[in-house]
Amino acid sequence: MSKNSSYWSANLRLVAICLVIWFVVSYLFGIILVEPLNNIRIGGYKLGFWFAQQGSIYTFVALIFFYANRMGKLDRKHDVHEDDE
């Protein structure tokens, strides 16, 4: 496997993982599983409602930082990082 090929396959794998996590939190927890999750209350709010209103946003922001961190490591591993000057 060439250097570029292994880099891009690792990159696509990371993107797929992030998209699956975001899908599960936003679509499954916020729409499909909202009724069962609404039986659980945290701080007085129904958990399904919280995922639909806040959880998917918090997860998206966390995924941005996670992706940036992992891509930085991946770039250094494959020697395609920007020089720190």
The spatial strand order of the largest sheet comes to 1-2
Major sheet: size, sense and barrel closure?
2 strands, antiparallel
DSSP summary: helix tally? 3
Rg, alpha carbons: 17 Å
- How many separate domains make up the residues? 1
| N- to C-terminal distance | 32 Å
| Fraction of residues in helix | over 70%
> Overall mean pLDDT score?
90
Structural class: mainly alpha
The count of β-strands is: 2
What's the helix-strand series? HHEEH
What is the general shape? Answer: elongated
Low-pLDDT segments? none
Relative strand content? under 5%
Characterization of this structure:
- The protein has 85 residues and is mainly alpha-helical.
- Strand 1 and strand 2 form a beta hairpin.
- It has one domain (3-77).
- The chain is elongated, with a radius of gyration of 17 Å.
- Helix content is 78%, strand content 5%.
Sequence-ordered SSE layout with sheet pairings:
Elements: H1 3-32, H2 34-38, E1 41-42, E2 45-46, H3 47-77
Antiparallel strand pairs: 1-2
Helix pairs in contact: 1-3
